[in-house]
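Why does residue order matter? Because the sequence determines the fold. Keep that principle in mind as you read this record.
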Amino acid sequence: MGGSVKLSPSARKRRFERSFETLALAALSFVLLAVPVSPADAQHSDAHSDGDSARIDAMFGTPDRYGTTPQDNIFATTPGLEQQARRSQFTINGLLPMFYNSNANLAPTNGPAGINSAEFSPILGASWSTPVFDLPLRFTANARAEVDRFTQGWQPSVSPAQFDKIALSGRLQYIDPTNDQNFSPYFAYAPRFDFDPFFRERFATRQDLNLGVNKTYNFDGAFQRVAFSANTLADTVWSLGVTAFAQRRFRDPQPSSWAFFLIPSATYVINEQWNVSVGAELAFRTFDPYLGFTENEWFLEPIATLEFVLPSAWFGSERKATLFGRPAIDLQMAYEQNWSNIAAFTYGAMHVGAALKLGWRF
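Structure:
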């Protein structure tokens, strides 16, 4: 005779808990894949905004001989990044990029199709670098405002990558006063505030604590190692570098996260007007448990940048070229790929475009 098996109260409780967990996971996956993601929800995965910052740093970090680069960059080959500031100096930087974005809506790999769009993301930044007394330390403060606009899928509900940002940072870095190719450890605190378009309303805040180190290897035109000195920029044609750092990110809204970055880079000065740089951002991020789930991500973004510095003769003199901000045209190609244990945050996107770069140092 058939009959039902009676379960003990504890067994019924365990079965109910397993069924509830399965149902909750299925419901979360359905919501993430089927519902348009708001800007705040999209930042559950911080990969895209980190990739965006890496592409900006790649353009600011080209081997420009004129030294109007902020001394706060993830690429070790950024000119002067491992050099002591001779005095307090201010830098103002502007960037006017126009790019093709193959996935403006951050569509997941196995989800709906991504939206191809032109992306316009003007940036204005100011920084201050100064030696710290007579110590082998340099302090750099940086502030940057950025807006992201798309020609397709312009509503934030359709394009979650579209929002405005104000980013601040303070960086304390060890500098070897006799060797700008030495290991250069640093600590940085970097808060960022995210707003709905046109800075209408703040919807997220994140605060990063970064502990890392830079290392460069500089070579002349014959690919011979440049002799150690406080400033090898004038003799450097090839530069190889690596940055590694650990990060604790506090987010509001949650979840916060830990991350580890490895960023190799290389630059080549073709001549006074042309230079090329390549780099890659490799990161692993693990989020704090949130709503019963823990997200882990791997992120990879190779970036190539070709820069043309407008000749001073086009402006009539060196002085006039300086007054105009030493304009340069950067051509860039990058591909970002994010892998996550939550399917909605696994995506890829191609970025191809150009930017007008300006800089003034005081």
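The chain has two domains: 8-37, 39-361.
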